[in-house]
User: Which sequence fits this backbone?
């Protein structure tokens, strides 16, 4: 099958590379020339485990191609994946400009019957609009079928998720096209769920909203645990062992970030509003998450009322481990607030420093060495649970910091370990540890 993937961001690139690895001929098209030039040399513009290796392999096997030319990309394609970005507008609605442009371009360039499969996260009803655009503008009497095939790829494990996902959703009103999609994915042996197009579009939003709800729920329980001297980690194990609840997405912390949850929860709330349904539960989920991202500074100021001129280490910049993506990352909010407070920040991350530098410039210091980040610092805020941070001995905080105060936003250390050290340790939903000997330089 000749496949074209339109829009080479996270989803597009991972999908294209993995489909090529299943022995399909895949052409990737994107308007960004420097990105395409880089990909042609086998280098990935994003950090994603296993991706670059598969990229190089499939280019060298002659089944993965990159172009900026729509004519080359869509000519004789049997199947086109739409994977362009669907960013949020200021009011939380979805900006469908790239979807419209790609649909118009496809219509002008196709040369035969084709299945168009949307992986981009789009509001319910969008695939019908895509079909209308293509049918109105198409250059010949070709049969075009539009399918919704949402993606469930997590950054940091996107390649793994492509090959070992929990399910594949195919939303279609054309049984033949559904069968073609099923055959495409058959080598993966992943259960396929077939639905109508609108339900498939809704499954994506509902999945992300539900996962976000689990996170905000556990964060609310964590807030109460703090007041009542209970330990959220133990509570999460206790409730997660009930199969009806499940033990995933119950890690309390400083909230969810990334390119999906914040955007998709707001978009679903908007979508509900459009049909005169006020999604109060989801509004609360979003509100709780905003509060969580502000917790580190609030907790810091309870110990160190003025952060002006204080040296603060921020450990972890990516919105989660395993990625260099900083979009909607808690660290971004934390550092913006710290800059307002006139704190002197040294920020650590193993891979996300260049991206943060592009965002916040040189108003702070950056390092990829934890020891350097902690040197003479008065406050350390852990915002991403990188393995490098989880494995970093607490004794070294004592060695490098001045009267160490640690705000662990991801509960990286066990309370048993914490109690062995002379540190002021504040985490999420667990008792605070204050050493008897500590003296603060307020
Ligand atoms: C998510 C979905 O999981 C994926 O299916 C979808 O297609 C894209 O959006 P991603 O954004 O890559 O994937 O990250 P995910 O692993 O889901 O984590 C999102 C955020 O939630 C992170 O900031 C993470 O730190 C936070 N999180 C996750 C928690 O705070 N607690 C948890 O228990 C789990």
Assistant:
């Amino acid at each position: 099958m000749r496949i074209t993937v339109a829009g080479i961001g996270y989803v597009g690139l991972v999908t294209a590379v993995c489909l090529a690895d299943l022995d399909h001929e895949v052409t990737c098209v994107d308007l960004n020339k420097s990105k395409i030039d880089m990909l042609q040399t086998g280098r990935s513009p994003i950090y994603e485990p296993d991706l670059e290796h598969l990229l190089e392999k499939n280019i060298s096997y002659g089944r993965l191609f990159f172009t900026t030319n729509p004519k080359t990309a869509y000519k004789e394609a049997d199947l086109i994946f739409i994977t362009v970005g669907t960013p949020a507008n200021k009011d939380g609605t979805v900006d469908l400009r790239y979807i419209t442009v790609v649909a118009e371009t496809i219509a002008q360039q196709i040369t035969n019957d084709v299945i168009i499969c949307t992986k981009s996260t789009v509001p319910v009803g969008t695939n019908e609009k895509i079909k209308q655009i293509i049918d109105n503008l198409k250059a010949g009497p070709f049969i075009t079928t539009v399918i919704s095939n949402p993606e469930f790829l997590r950054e940091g494990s996107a390649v793994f998720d492509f090959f070992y996902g929990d399910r594949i959703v195919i939303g279609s009103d054309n049984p033949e096209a559904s069968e073609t999609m099923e055959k495409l994915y058959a080598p993966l042996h992943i259960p396929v769920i077939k639905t109508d197009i609108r339900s498939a579009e809704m499954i994506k939003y509902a999945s992300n909203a539900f996962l976000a709800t689990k996170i905000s729920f556990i964060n609310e329980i964590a807030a109460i645990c703090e007041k009542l001297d209970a330990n959220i980690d133990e509570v999460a194990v206790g409730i997660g062992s009930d199969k009806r609840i499940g033990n995933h997405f119950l890690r309390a912390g400083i909230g969810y970030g990334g390119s999906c949850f914040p955007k998709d929860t707001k978009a679903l709330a908007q979508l509900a509003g459009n049909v005169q349904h006020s999604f109060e539960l989801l509004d609360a989920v979003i509100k709780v998450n905003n509060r969580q991202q502000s917790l580190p500074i609030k907790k810091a100021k309870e110990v160190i009322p003025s952060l002006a001129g204080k040296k603060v280490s921020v450990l972890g910049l990516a919105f989660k481990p395993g990625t260099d993506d900083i979009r909607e990352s808690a660290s971004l909010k934390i550092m913006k607030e710290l800059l307002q407070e006139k704190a002197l920040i040294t920020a650590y991350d193993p891979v996300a420093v260049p991206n943060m530098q592009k965002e916040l410039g040189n108003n702070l210091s950056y390092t990829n060495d934890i020891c350097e980040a902690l040197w003479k610092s008065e406050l350390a805020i852990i915002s991403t649970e990188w393995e490098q941070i989880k494995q970093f001995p607490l004794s070294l905080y004592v060695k490098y910091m001045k009267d160490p105060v640690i705000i662990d936003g991801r509960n990286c250390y066990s309370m048993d370990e914490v109690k062995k050290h002379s540190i002021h340790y504040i985490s999420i939903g667990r008792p605070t540890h204050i050493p008897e000997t500590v003296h603060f330089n307020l």
